[in-house]
Amino acid sequence: MIRRIEHTLTCFHPTTLEDLNAVKLLRRYDTKFVFHRDDIAAIFDVLSGGYEILEIGDNRSFTYETLYYDTDDYLFYHQHHNRKLNRYKIRCRRYRQSNQCYFEVKLKNNRRETIKSRLPLGNGAFDSTLSEESKLFAKERMLSGDGWIVEKVTPKLKVFYNRITLANHTNKERLTFDTDLTYIDRRGTLHRINNVTIAELKSEQISLNSRLYQHLKGLGILPSTFSKYCMGIAVTEQNVKCNRFKKKIMGLKRFS
């Protein structure tokens, strides 16, 4: 199956990081899908005519390393669990192949838009303790009255995965496919979630006419909410509320 996926990737025309930056979509709508890894090659077969694939050097699949921050009582996690809008994620992300590193603030607003702001970190390393520059950056991008949270956050979870990125420049769409999801919790314990693909359609507006959406619908794969951070906390921490995520956790186990 891995060889079939690798072969399918060669069917896409390449796009560069510079071209992809024209479809940054830092303010966007996200639609996610979760399915078995074995389905990914057939999905790529359908998409290869309409999308280009990000290629850097000889790489078409890239490793992402992300460090998430939260308060000691997991405020960000519980905001998501309780379906609160105007909620945040604060993280550092490193792209292993290029060694680029960014501090990021994500807001899911009350119109269900995702708004992402990012600050380059020149040393290519995670901030285990947020710098004053990162704190100020976050406070300036949080809603009025929420800036105090930044002083309370500490590292809570490391997340690793491999990502394939497709782009349709005409429709201003990005498609990402994440596999090999791995967590390292705050105690240093490794947790793997096998055989799962998390696909995400990122677009300026919600579109039910996307080729990905229509193809997955035909396979019986419907949109699903899925937060890598929240699922990671739910499966690695014993003393957090996770009622809303139990069905998803059981679904992930069926993929194993």
Draw up the topology in text.
Blueprint (H helix, E strand, L loop, with lengths): L1 H8 L3 E3 L1 H4 L6 E10 L3 H8 L4 E3 L7 E9 L4 H7 L5 E9 L4 E9 L5 E7 L11 H10 L12 E15 L4 E13 L4 E4 L2 E8 L7 H8 L9 H9 L9 H10 L1
Parallel strand pairs: 1-3
Antiparallel strand pairs: 2-7, 2-11, 3-8, 4-5, 4-8, 5-6, 6-7, 8-9, 9-10, 9-11
Number of strands: 11
Main beta-sheet strand count, sense and barrel state = 8 strands, antiparallel, barrel
Overall shape: it is: globular
Number of helices: 8
The helix-strand sequence is: HEHEHEEHEEEHEEEEHHH
Low-confidence stretches: none
Tell me the β content: 35-45%
* C-alpha-based Rg, rounded: 18 Å
| Estimated structural class | alpha+beta
Task: Tell me the span between the first and last alpha carbons.
Answer: 15 Å
Description:
With 256 residues, the chain is an alpha+beta fold. The protein is 25% helix and 35% strand. The chain contains eight helices and eleven strands. The protein has helices spanning 2-9, 17-20, 40-47, 75-81, 132-141, 211-218, 228-236, 246-255; strands at 13-15, 27-36, 52-54, 62-70, 87-95, 100-108, 114-120, 154-168, 173-185, 190-193, 196-203. An eight-stranded antiparallel barrel has the order 2-7-6-5-4-8-9-11, surrounded by four helices. β6 and β7 (114-120) form a beta hairpin. α1 (2-9) runs parallel beside α3. The radius of gyration is 18 Å and the shape is globular.
